Amino acid sequence: MSTQDNSLHDIIKSYLATSPLPMHMPGHKRNAKFGDAPDLDITEVDMILHGEGQAALAEMCKMAAELYGAAQALPSVGGSTCAILAAVYATTRPGDSIIMARNCHKSVYHAAEICRLDVSYLLPEFCPTLGVATHVPAQAVEVAFAQSPNARLVVITSPTYEGIVSDIVAIARIVRRHEALLFVDSAHGAHFLGGDFSSNAIAQGADLAVVSLHKTLPALTPSAFLLCGERISVPNRVEIERAMGMFGTSSPSYPLLASMDNCIRLMTDRGAELLAKLEQNLHEFFQRVANMQNLALMPNDDPSKLVICGKSVPICGSKLMSLLLHEYNVELEMAGVHYALAMTTVADERETLIRFADALVEIDSLHFDQLTTPQFAAVTPTLPEVALPAWQARTCEGEVVPFDSAGGRISLEYAWAYPPGIPVLVPGEVVPLDFADEIEKLRVTGVRITTSSGSDYEIRVKS
What we know:
Strands 1-9-8-7-6-2-3 form a 7-stranded mixed β-sheet, with helices on both faces. Strands 10-11-13-12 form a 4-stranded antiparallel β-sheet. Strands 16-15-17 form a 3-stranded antiparallel β-sheet, with no helix packed on it. The chain is α+β, with helices and mostly antiparallel strands. It is 37% helix and 16% strand. Among the domains are: 272-370, Aspartate Aminotransferase, domain 1 (Alpha-Beta Complex); 390-462, Ornithine Decarboxylase, Chain A, domain 4, CATH 3.90.100. The protein has helices at residues 8-16, 46-50, 52-68, 79-91, 106-114, 138-147, 168-177, 213-216, 234-247, 254-289, 317-328, 350-367, 390-393, 435-444, and strands spanning 72-76, 97-101, 118-122, 126-127, 132-133, 153-157, 181-185, 208-211, 224-228, 295-297, 305-310, 334-335, 339-343, 398-402, 415-417, 422-425, 450-451, 458-462.
């Protein structure tokens, strides 16, 4: 039987073809007079709760687990964020120690705050020229355990937004020796299924991983899966599934679930073919830009992530992003201090990448002088001075002060650039004395740092 038989999408379409009178949610009643109501947006009708739809969902999860080599795969219509919150909640208890990479997404920080965890940080390697966090050294994990021997959980990000991969095999070996669990945020690695792409985190020994289908595979935003490895016991899997219900909605989105089902079936049936085609198209892209004199592509571990920077003269990432949009109608994913990021997937046609390559070649030869910017090396991250755990900081009385008056005070807010949503400051940490100066350097390059309350010039600190 083809994996395209009895897909959730087709089951719902067959049900709707009978034109049932919808005396139930959702409120749009699939009535085109009231906006763009998705055809597949139905409630949990009997067919879904007890019939073919429920069987299709179970089959989707089974196929996803097989695709990624996991013992269990749990769908999330709340993105990787929901899955991260649930996994951390289910595998820790208040007061537990965890080790996490400093470049983790803000959802990991939120999970640690909600669960009242004692956090020790890992510092990834860092590229000061571009201001990019790279891989987490395995030895750093060993050192972290020496400082936090009772840690129950280690959380790292691999691949990073910019396509940098850590040595999961080596890190997993260390984590197992210390009888802890390894959780890898692989939100940007849903396409890591072989070929020129790394194998996924579960296949490399992680105990838990998240993959955001919508980021790098053809699925609707914010489709994701939480993957459990063999070391996660059946009782713990039940607890994780319960936590997914706590942090996720009780009104699941069937357009999203159908999209996820189609995506998993597609990659099961044709994944190798589609990834090979992407590799071929990227090879041609790299050939077309190989002779650029001023622009370059940062070497990384994921060829689908195109990190564009200056070859010998630094560029302003936000200027490149703006130029591509307004002169070439090309929208990039994000801009950093001295680079800009383009993401490619199996849904990109050959013509798409040729058009993008030609735009970069023309900019390289005709408009590079518009992109140059004064070079300044990003401050290499250091471990923060933590005065209070984040969960305790939120209970403190505070006042709002300008950034240039916050140095030496205890922050009661997060500060981050989004994307990628990695905090530069966490509640309970002492604001560095040079915080305002560093933020101003970033602002000049077009990178905006905002606080939890949405301000880019003031922050709430402890009274």
